[in-house]
Design a protein that fits this description.
single chain, four-stranded antiparallel sheet, 2 domains, Retrotrans_Pao, 11 helices, alpha+beta, Reverse transcriptase domain-containing protein, 379 residues, globular
């Protein structure tokens, strides 16, 4: 790797100017974070400094020289689906996960950076090096996930299979979603999961659950995230990007309709803002995708006005889009999965329904998973 100290010094001077003209709170937080990085090798949660490992110097970057490593994250769809399986839902995270994993000493020299002693920009820049993996490096996610999974694999004989399985199958990088059948299981999982992760130096934090009794138990610790179940706005959390209403124990989806130019670019921007990994919105999305499909077939420009007949279809779809907020039940008692698929000239789709039955033999059907698509355009 070439010595890019000159570039680092110039970027440090740019940061100095930014700190001098920013609000004092930003400067204090940034300086506090960097001092912590130097003294303790981990970051505070209020601010996350991302090191730019993609800066090019003499035709190369650090990320280009790093091996990304295998993708060791569990399936996002699998984690969200299992999260809905049992009655007591639990969500938690690993505190500063990347910073708990050491970098081999022979590689630490590649992670050098410049900073002012104690954040005092009037002093000369000093050179430091990271001894842990950092945010921004292409290799960090794979290395951190490997280290976490190694905790489970090395301690299989000391913990229940359910705890080991949680580490191996229910973590998405530093976020964990899991559901269990009872309060007793939730409490035991809390105790054992903390213990098995601690063997590798990982501290679990931000514990949340939909069960009031378990929430009260978690509150006795310092790792719990305080929730107010009496206020709807405070009982909503993002579970891997999907809104989870903790009080009602439902996934919710919000489609924020914004006024955008009625062009191909504007319609695509609107559609791209919909995050739906489980395909719950599949029944309402295809009409809008068909409009984009037709615009591509007509070869209209990105910023050209949409033809009148398609503009009418788009306006009608926007007006009829009433599914701005709806919930999907998380709890499951006795259940069956029913699968359906179909296709036509305008689109195709597959859906799985979860049919639940309670002790009174009452049945409830909800969408579990779905996918939809459009046929390929002829060249």
């Amino acid at each position: 790797m070439p010595n890019n100290r000159a570039v680092a010094e110039q970027r440090a001077l740019n940061m100095k100017k930014k700190l001098q003209r920013s609000f004092q709170t930003f400067k204090d937080d940034y300086v506090s974070f960097m001092n912590d990085m130097i003294n303790k090798r981990y970051a505070k949660k209020k601010i996350r400094v991302v090191f730019d490992c993609g800066t090019s110097y003499q035709g190369t970057t650090l990320n280009e020289q790093l091996l990304q490593g295998p993708d060791m994250t569990s399936s996002l769809i699998g984690i969200l689906t299992r999260f809905r399986q049992d009655q007591v839902a639990i969500m938690l995270g690993v505190e500063s996960m990347f910073h708990q994993v050491k970098v081999p000493p022979e590689d630490a020299g590649l992670l050098r950076f410049l900073w002012w002693p104690d954040g005092d920009v009037s002093q000369e820049l000093q050179k430091y090096r990271m001894e842990v993996h950092l945010f921004g490096a292409a290799s960090s996610p794979s290395c951190a996930c490997y280290a976490l999974r190694k905790c489970a694999e090395d301690n299989k004989s000391s913990f229940d299979a359910a705890v080991v399985e949680t580490v191996l199958c229910n973590f998405y990088v530093d976020d964990c979603l899991r559901s269990v059948a009872s309060e007793q299981e939730a409490v035991k999982l809390y105790q054992d999961l903390k213990a098995i992760c601690q063997t590798g130096g990982f501290r679990l934090t931000k514990w949340m659950t939909n069960n009031l009794c378990c929430q009260a138990f978690y509150k006795r610790t310092t790792e719990v995230k305080t929730l107010d179940f009496d206020q709807e706005s405070l009982a909503m959390e993002r579970a891997l990007g999907v809104l989870w209403c903790i009080r009602s124990d439902q996934f919710k989806f919000q489609v924020n309709i914004q006024q955008r130019p009625l062009t191909q670019r504007g319609i695509l921007a609107m559609m791209s803002s919909v995050y739906d990994p489980l395909g719950m919105l599949s029944p309402v999305v295809p009409p809008a995708k068909n409009i984009l499909h037709e615009l591509c077939r007509l070869r209209t420009g990105w910023d050209d006005a949409v033809p009148d007949h398609l503009a009418q279809h788009w306006s009608r779809w926007m007006e009829e889009l009433q599914l701005t907020n709806f919930g999907v039940a998380v709890q499951s008692l006795e259940a069956q999965l029913h699968h359906f698929s179909d296709a036509s000239e305008t689109g195709y789709g597959v859906v799985t329904y979860l049919v639940q039955k309670n002790s009174s033999n009452q049945k409830h059907c909800t969408t579990s998973w779905g996918r939809q698509g459009l046929p390929l355009l002829n060249p």
